[in-house]
Amino acid sequence: MLSLLKKNFSYSSIEDDEYGSELKLDVTSPSRSSKFIIIKTGTLSLLLVAFLFLSSILSTWIVFFNSKAFSARQDIVSSPVPAASSLSCQQAPLRREWRTLTVVEQHDYVRAVRCLTTKPSRIGHNGTLYDDFPWVHKHTSTNTHKAAPFLPWHRYYLNLYETALKQECSFHGNLPYWDWSLDSSNFRASPVWDPSSGLGGDGTGPQSVGDGQCVTAGPFSDLEMSFYDGEYQPHCLSRGFPPSNELKALGELICPEAIKNLMKESTYEDFAPELERRAHTFLSRSVRGDLSRFTGPNDPIFFLHHVNIDRLWTQWQQIQPAERLSAYGGKANKDSDAVARMTDALDMGGLAPQSEKIQVIDVMDVKGGRFCYGY
């Protein structure tokens, strides 16, 4: 109202008294001479004028800020979502190579692994919680080997193993790995085979499974495994190192130069199968025994081996993280032509809680989603 008056008239003053105001207007009309009009307004009139004036200003600002907010929302939708690593995983705990651990750390890890062999099965067979891991590895092998899920499935599998060590056996460290490329030219001398600071060495006892013999020295020399190749077959931990000339040839698969060349692969479809072929051929034929079959997790060295595979995949991803943290493809199953997708579920065969519905996309980043660790 006040703005309307100002538009059509010129005003000379606004005079106040204790009850209201007088608006003195100089009225000009084409057909009349100028004269002054005194408009008496009470308190209510002034409040109405002020209200209408402020309302018009407020409406203008609301329209302005709404347009800005919409624009900002559009920017958020079109921009990449920040990775979980940048928000919640700034200081990720590190998984370290076996030979860099202190003796206390090595012994604590061995203690926790042995502890798992005393816990009841989650799956319901007549073995232990430790036996659950080779059992599941065997019974999901069609989907998890010689197919695209090989790397993401084992990443989640290792996470479940580490969680069991921490929750069931008070393990306070992080999963270690064995960088076998460091021992490619002298396999038998690797620190992981040391009977006191490692996981024990070659089988030297009675004949056992997988063309191996019972391991008689080291922290796992007294363990009895429940399954072999999916069947209930109680037996001692079995290893059978081949002759030195064969070990030397196998070492060429995973020597530093071979790994360096592997890292040059530009696609997941090329990198993942080649890493699987080299690493699995090397380990199964170098150690043999329990590692000759898909119940290979019977041998504790399996986990250090697979953490190293996960480390190499992580390093490959970090070469070009913007592309490779979502690089995935190939066959969903080695026995079918189904195409692998990021939304494919990872079947843990009862190891994971039923409420967890984990897909490939959930495990692609070690510093995002459900994970927070590094190397």
From TrEMBL:
The keyword Acyltransferase does not apply. One of its GO terms (molecular function) is oxidoreductase activity. Keywords: Copper, Membrane, Metal-binding, Transmembrane, Transmembrane helix. The chain crosses the membrane at residues 44-64. The keyword Metal-binding applies. Residues 145-162, 299-310 form the Tyrosinase copper-binding domain. InterPro entries: Di-copper_centre_dom_sf, Tyrosinase/Hemocyanin, Tyrosinase_Cu-bd. This is Tyrosinase copper-binding domain-containing protein. It comes from Heterodermia speciosa.
